[in-house]
What we know:
By secondary structure, the chain is an alpha/beta fold. It contains 18 helices and 14 strands. The strands form 4 sheets. The protein has an 8-stranded parallel beta sheet with strand order 4-3-2-1-12-11-7-5.
Amino acid sequence: MTKLKAGFDDGFLWGGAISCSQADGGWKQGGKGTSTQDLRYLDPSWDHEQVELKHHGNPFSREEFEAALADEGTEFYPNRRGIDFYHRYKDDIELFGEMSLKLFRTSICWSRIFPNGDDLEPNREGIEYYRSMFSECHRHGIKVFATILHYDIPVNLVLKYGGWKSRETIEFFVRYAETLFSELGDLVDFWLPFNEFNAGRFAPWDGVCLIPGDEECTSQAVFQCLHHQFVANARVVELCHRMLPGAPIGGMIARFCTYPATCKPEDNMQALQDDQYSNWFYTDIMARGAYPSYMNRYFDRFDIDIKMEDGDEELLAANTIDFLAFSYYFSQVSTTEQGWEKTAGNLVMANKNPYLPTSEWGWQMDPVGLRVTLNQMYDRYGLPLYIAENGLGASDVLNEDGTVHDDYRIDYLRSHIECLKEAVIDGVDVRGYMVWGFIDVVSCGPLTMDKRYGLIYVDYDNGGKGTGERYRKDSFAWYKKCIESNGEDLS
């Protein structure tokens, strides 16, 4: 009989995560082409209410798309600026090493490797940038967890081929991944083809490059794009296993932990279906290798007919993932009742749980939901798990002496790590935990800097003004202590 664990294994990987589009900057430098995330607009003069109205009411539009293509500036496009990680990565990674970080998750910018997406040859300057950055990580004893696609595809693929509506994009993605495996395979420790696979359904522009409100942005189109991504994912898994034997390659979703709102059987059934349609559909295909039967009823209800080609089902079945990763920020409730109070969450507006506190941005904080999620996912798949993102977005204050007192973030992280430890004792094979935006980055939803997740403060405001200097928050020292004690000292 396996002995009960008392805590984290010695090799547990304590990490942090960012994405290239939210951090790098380097707009039009080093041979980089324009990506889909470079087109997202924010007026830095907007107040909080205006930002939230844009974020939740009309996150991206055809007019915004056309205007952004014609605008070469950076003033209204925060992702073109990021936090200047492109130029500052060596100093930043030195800070990560000082924190004793074990694992660094970042994404690779497709348009920095293939500026147009369909180029015949890769951009050597882009490849050398990542070789230098990843080598710097290893020099500081930090393993690399590389996301191949974190929402940003070369915009030329959207203009010329329709993005993920076209199977041609699958071929371009596979060529891109093959280049990464060949050029960076000796420097990457973990591979992840797609960030938050289920984003396509909830944030179509981010996930599958469809513009909300366009006539073509239908459920049929979204799920057809997702099918093309599933095929691309399986092709890349097969390629990784062949080119880099032993290199772990996984799949990821944005995890929506869901409870029934009441004891009513109808609410329990609703929770089960919400879990299936929002979570399990994506992980079932990646981990089990087949479309689950419960989706037939969903597809029939919404008149969705997935067009598959010969060999697609066999490809999915033969190329399942090695591990599962997920982002976890909040939980929600499911109910058949109309008019249930809503609150904000990652990618979605969620039904509010009256038993949970909410963050400054309205996200419900539920550390026990992390333990629930870990148990559910491990019970279902038996695969190693990685928490790819977890953290608290808040308004931080940089004091005149360069300090940032963020006890609220420490409390959030402590409570979640305590429940993570409980899941380990439960028997869950979880191997890594990554704090999202552990250095302040442009927040993905609102596109602002004032919603900060980091343990390192970056002195930029919503308009990109500031020194860009980095400052250690109180949570920096706290997480360093957590890492060095392997999760034992959370005081």
